[in-house]
């Protein structure tokens, strides 16, 4: 038997985990690398012609060392009982799959090993590691037990894999071809990497019965204005029965990973559709199906990263004033590139009602500036510190002036203080706002439904080809 103690004690009995929050565990957060980091590293690999490989740690959670203040016990499995001690229990030293804290414990164990091998963890991105020696550079992005390793030479990647094998069992997947559901194609002749999610698109088309539908040229009809239904209006029985069989939430959820992974061209449409998850009607379902029809016609588009151009962080920001007909809130959109296709983008409704286009653009620029500062910190962490202020392209002169000086006091004194951090970023030389014609503002595609000609032109500027 085991001795009683004041430590947290829990039992694993059979396949059942009897874990109590606050007693057996407290924290479960386990960081993973952002998709923006994944795309940024692939851009660097392509542009510098560096080696990029994929590694998987087998049964990673079983390597996590349990902390001393989270003691876990387990009944002996029937075929492994110690003769004469059948009523004894095992004290677990490592994590098990199914434990609430297993992911966090593994992440800490992995971090200690990486630091021991000379890696530094980025302050702004806890699952990206950087090591520079006289032999070369290695950059590693970690998603639970999957690793993307980008190195200045193949020998450095081989050295890193040998270090992993010295502690854990790994699957050496070689040159990266498919990671996180994203297909990766490389063209070393042009120094480019192409990202796509064709397999997911095909699954969505099949799952939601759109194989026989006709493709369309845009994901959202610019003439259609979606609204939330009046909750006071009763829903007819036949419509209620029809909507109960419609997998609207499942479809929008599937589209979300495309929108954040490799298809910024559907980001606005998916963001709008996500606003009706608890009140969708037939028109919302048809709008969601239209996105699938658009993907069907453009399933071959790939996000192009890398190239021979010098690495430079450039951003675009835009807003669509009072876009939401229900709340009259505006839509903010921004995107950032390192010289080719976009590595970061966002389309979302603003949290407050703006009373002018200037205010809406100012809020959008503030949102873009926060992402810009994170990207600058990320680049600095991997020894690619921007030497000049990052250009942030904007098509509103009033918002530009407001960010550079305290002008229009009578018209702008009501603006929330938090948005004025943009002024500090500009004054400190981190960001420089530059004017761009509305027709050339790439972020416009992230704020509204556009006509086909304009949409296709801006889609190309996103890096989708």
TrEMBL record:
Chain spans, region Disordered: 212-238
Residue span, Reverse transcriptase Ty1/copia-type domain: 17-220
The protein, known as: Reverse transcriptase Ty1/copia-type domain-containing protein
Biological source species: Antrodiella citrinella
